[in-house]
Amino acid sequence: MQYDIAIVGGGATGLGVALDAAARGLRVVLIDSHDFAKGTSSRSTKLVHGGVRYLAQGNIALVQEALQERTLVLGNAPYAAQPLAFVMPTYRWWEVPFYGAGLKMYDLLAGRAGLGRTELLSRQETLSHLPTLRAKGLTGGVKYWDGQFNDARFAVALARTAAKQGALLVNYCRATELSYQAGKLVGLTCEDQLSGARYPLRSRCIVNATGVWVDELRQRDVLAMNGPMGRQTQPMVVPSQGVHMVVDREFLDSDVALMVPKTADGRVLFAVPWLGKVILGTTDTPRSDLDREPQAFEDEIEFILKESARYLRRAPTRDDVKSLWVGLRPLVKIAENKDRKTRELSREHTILISRSGLVTVTGGKWTTYRAMAEDVLKKCWQGRLIAATRSRPPGFTPKTGENFGQISVKRMESYKLLLYKTTC
Questions:
Q1: Is the domain of 70 the same as that of 143?
Q2: What pLDDT is stored for residue 226 in this prediction?
Q3: Which range of residues forms the domain containing residue 199?
Q4: How confident is the model over 372-418, as pLDDT tens digits?
Q5: Strand pairing partners for 329?
Q6: Torsion angle, CA of 193/194/197/199, rounded to 10 degrees?
Q7: Is the distance from CB of 211 to CB of 13 less than 8 angstroms?
Q8: Would you say residue 97 lies in a domain?
Q9: Alpha carbons 247 and 72: distance in angstroms, whole number
Q10: Domains held by the chain: number
Q11: Which residues, listed in sequence order, are joined to residue 328 by a DSSP beta bridge?
């Protein structure tokens, strides 16, 4: 069968592209070498948020986009995503007005998409929200709202919804070879990871959405085009590792999350209620290898425990850690940033189209997966890698002469809303 678009990678980005493409009437196939969302997409902090720290970095556009997308996630999948209140404690007199002003701006950027009003809290009000907080030196706090979601469940909902719209999604199926015709990418060969059987796939467009592993497929494309003696492609991803630990609820004893905007080394620390337990994290550590099951470094574990002890009256120890997970973030590498710390690298997504037509997308975050998917399809359309389709969402009435590339964002958002609500 000839597909319009073949997607390699079944994480947040790949699944988002599959759903968007299938909803527009394209013939879609998606393959993943492991379970859907097996990597980074099931190992997040379980937050769907605008990015308070990005606001502090002055990245207003990224925050605005994420806040709008946050609303869509919460509205489209209420069974997997809900609003969550956060309290940022302060221990210096100037921190309440300083952080309060920043979070008020957060509210303004959200506009109608806001989830609740930011409040400046007294010392006693802060302790009433977070009773296990260290009281010594506490001056007050700031309460604001963001969202929380079940990342793995949300990914499965995306996969099911895409399949309902006609997409073929196959896990444990690895892309092993790329196929070319007259210098253009026309398909790939995939291998069943369980049986070893190999299958050819023909597609007008191939999207590389493999997260931190995108450079592997990009390198195969370059070698196929230039030969083994040709110049290798420069990596576009700098992996960063985030560690999260699970402890008993008693260490936070609240339905409100704790957020520390600046730890000893400048990172953000969260203590988030989750399924009757508490998630502590996260770190932001450079990682050169790309192990499918990355392990936490000892200094990362010690860092989280040490920072938690600065803010919690009773700090957890190693013996209190019930479990932990490690996620690899695909941070986009920019030449002038090569010597900068990972927390300063771009959190925005990047889309590249190679000379052969391989479309690579990486970066970004869970909250903005839908916008990323839409951008990918726009690039594919502009690059003439996918053709117009007359398929339309139910109840959609196109204007005279309107085609695929002219369907408005708002109409597609509304359509996806309908799709998600049929998925449980």
A1: yes
A2: 80
A3: 2-40+153-235+345-420
A4: 999 999 999 999 999 765 444 443 444 444 444 444 344 445 445 44
A5: 240
A6: -50
A7: yes
A8: yes
A9: 30
A10: 3
A11: 241
Residues 222 and 244 in one domain: no
DSSP string, 123-140: HHHHHHH-TTB--TT--E
Q: Name the strand (E) or helix (H) holding 89.
A: strand 81-90
Query: How far apart (Å, rounded) are the C-alpha atoms in residues 89 and 258?
Result: 8
Instruction: Flag the least confident range among 11-20, 124-133, 302-311, 345-354.
Output: 345-354
Say if residue 229 is in the same domain as residue 250. no
Place of tokens 């709008």: 68
399 C-beta neighbours (distance < 10 Å), count:
7
Question: Does the pLDDT at position 62 exceed 70?
Answer: yes
Contact 300, 241 (CB under 8 A): yes
Distances (CA, A) of 194 to 86, 197, 199: 44, 8, 13
Which pLDDT belongs to residue 141? Answer: 97
pTM (whole model) above 0.85: yes
Which phi and psi angles does 257 have, rounded to 5°? -85, 150
Q: Are residues 169 and 134 in the same domain?
A: no
CATH number at residue 188: 3.50.50.60
49 inside domain: no
> Taking a C-beta distance cutoff of 8 angstroms, is the pair 118, 106 a contact?
yes
Contact 189, 176 (CB under 8 A): yes
- Token output for 399: 């204007």
Q: Model confidence over 299-313: pLDDT tens digits?
A: 999 999 999 999 999
Shared domain for 30 and 102, answered yes or no, is no
Q: Which of 147, 180, 201 is the last residue of a domain?
A: 147
